[in-house]
Amino acid sequence: MYQIMDINGEMIGMTDQPMYVLLASNGCYQLTNESNSQGIQFNGNVYHSIGRPSMKGLEPEVYLQKIDDGAITYESMSQTSEFILNTTYNLVVTNLNVSALYDSFDTSDL
User: What is the pLDDT of residues 11-48, one digit of tens each?
Assistant: First the structure.
């Protein structure tokens, strides 16, 4: 898994397999392998890879940062578990508060 990072260190996105591109002689971008690439394509946008030969000069510069899939999965599972626990707790507390309110309500005048 790779994070696509801009020159300011902001994450643009993540991908399992980068789509490497180069600028062909006809002015179009074409897919290529990593060693011949000038940049990457992600979500319909072309980005220039820092340290590679320039393309048109208009593409935002990025770099790829390899990351561990397991760490991302673990973090995602932890956040999901925490969300489920918090939601369940809030539902139980809300239910108890409603029950306590109902039990304390004087219905003798009805």
Answer: 999 999 999 999 999 999 999 999 999 999 999 999 99
What distance in Å separates the CA atoms of residue 78 and residue 81, rounded to the nearest whole number? 5
The answer to whether the beta carbons of residues 55 and 45 sit under 8 Å apart is no
Alpha carbon distance 31, 43 (integer Å)? 14
In order of 12, 42, 63, the CA distances from 5 in angstroms are: 6, 12, 5
CA atoms of 23 and 7, how far apart (whole Å): 21
Nearest alpha-carbon partner for 27 in 46, 44, 43:
46
